[in-house]
Design brief:
- The chain has 135 residues and is mostly helical.
- The chain is built from six helices and two strands, in the order E-E-H-H-H-H-H-H.
- A two-stranded antiparallel sheet has the order 1-2.
- Helix 1 packs antiparallel against helix 2 and helix 3 runs antiparallel to helix 4.
- The radius of gyration is 18 Å and the shape is flat.
């Protein structure tokens, strides 16, 4: 199933990452109000902005975003797996492992990967240049 030339899963992944970004940006306020902890607030804001950028790039079908999400999901899955093996697991650990695994399986599916790695048609490249998108 696709929505406007993007698979529904890309919309969902981008939406989840954007929601994480918004919660980080909102947490910036929580870091400042009670204690005025500037370093934590700035770091939280930077992470939120980077997550928002990652969501936008994934939604834009950028190759680099695909690699970033695959690498970070792999690291996250490996970390959760080690936690489970060491006996430090709870429901959140299993849920995070499942989400990482599902993300990896989905993004590495050949039909989905072609959205990121297929050569764009000349008409598509021309349309992107007209809108100001290069590359």
């Amino acid at each position: 199933m696709s929505v406007r030339a993007r698979p529904l899963g890309i919309w969902i992944l981008s939406g989840v990452i954007a929601a994480q970004a918004i919660t980080h940006i909102a947490a910036t306020y929580d870091s400042l109000v009670p204690t005025a902890d500037w370093p934590a607030a700035v770091l939280t804001l930077v992470v939120g902005v980077l997550l928002l950028n990652k969501a936008w790039r994934l939604w834009s079908l950028c190759k680099v975003a695909w690699w970033v999400v695959v690498i970070l999901s792999s690291i996250g899955a490996a970390t959760r797996f080690v936690e489970i093996v060491r006996g430090h697991s709870g429901a959140a650990t299993w849920l995070a492992l499942g989400w990482s695994a599902l993300t990896l399986v989905y993004l590495c599916h050949p039909r989905i990967r072609t959205f990121f790695f297929a050569e764009p048609s000349r008409q598509h490249v021309h349309a992107r240049r007209q809108r100001g998108h290069f590359g």
